[in-house]
Predict the structure.
Amino acid sequence: MRKGGLRSYILRRLTISLLIAWGVVTITFILLRVGPSSPADKYLSNIGARSTDPNKVAAAINARYGLDKPIHVQYFDYLTNLLRGDWGWSFSKSMPVIELIKKHWVYSAQLILLTVLVSSILGILIGVYSAVKQYSRFDYASTFFSLVGISVPTFWLGIMLMLLFSVRLGWFKTYYDTGLPLFSFANLKALILPVLTLSIGSTAGYVKYSRSAILDNLKKDFVKFARAKGLSERTVIGKHVFRNALLTLVTIFLADLSGVVFGGAYLTEIIFGIPGLGRISFNAILNSDYPVVIAVTLIGATVTLLTNLTTDIAYTWIDPRIRYD
């Protein structure tokens, strides 16, 4: 593919991505602002037994954060500050949103990276071996696992694993200890159940689609030709079949990455008490903390858009026949 064609394609996609991100921020902003609650509501319950007038307290809080202005003025102010790098102020945590994100993103990152690493490697290996040993007992077992793994809801699986291994057996804690060093065996042990919760569904998906991709390529004429040349089965599978199946696997990998980031990881953090972006976003929704919700939503949309763009670019590297110009 010519560099000029790829460059112009990337610029077009980035422009479209910016427009989509702007749309996500706009829709999220409007939906949150027209909701029935406001950040002042969480303060009112604390002064219920006092003589202070709740209406005056709510008015003071709204005036302090500019929530008493018309919605279009609030929207313009938010976009202006966002372009300046100011993501707003967290009402519930009393700190800048950007500082809150910096403090908690690492907990989400470690969970996501471990999950993607475990599920992709394990799932692809099982799927490839299952395709090579088609109709064997291993193939039937892996096929059954993929069907069950994809069907089981993440939140239910996490609760069941916690009840079994934490409550009944006592092997793990029922909560995540934030005092543990990130790079330590104790922290790795604390992440076993959350990673297992996310990995089972992801691994099942990799098994299903990698097996299908390998089987589809095993039927191609180039495989017969490679075998006719006397190449070993390992060379045929590893060099020819697997490379042609990469298009499917790359799509699954990047789609799974964006899905894990703000899909399963969101619920898993809530279940196991991991203070990542999903957990703080959930708490922000309960506290009507608009800036935090919008910021986490924007991060999720950006990750999804960038992974889709990366997928398209990776296609041209894997298969030079693909053109975007």
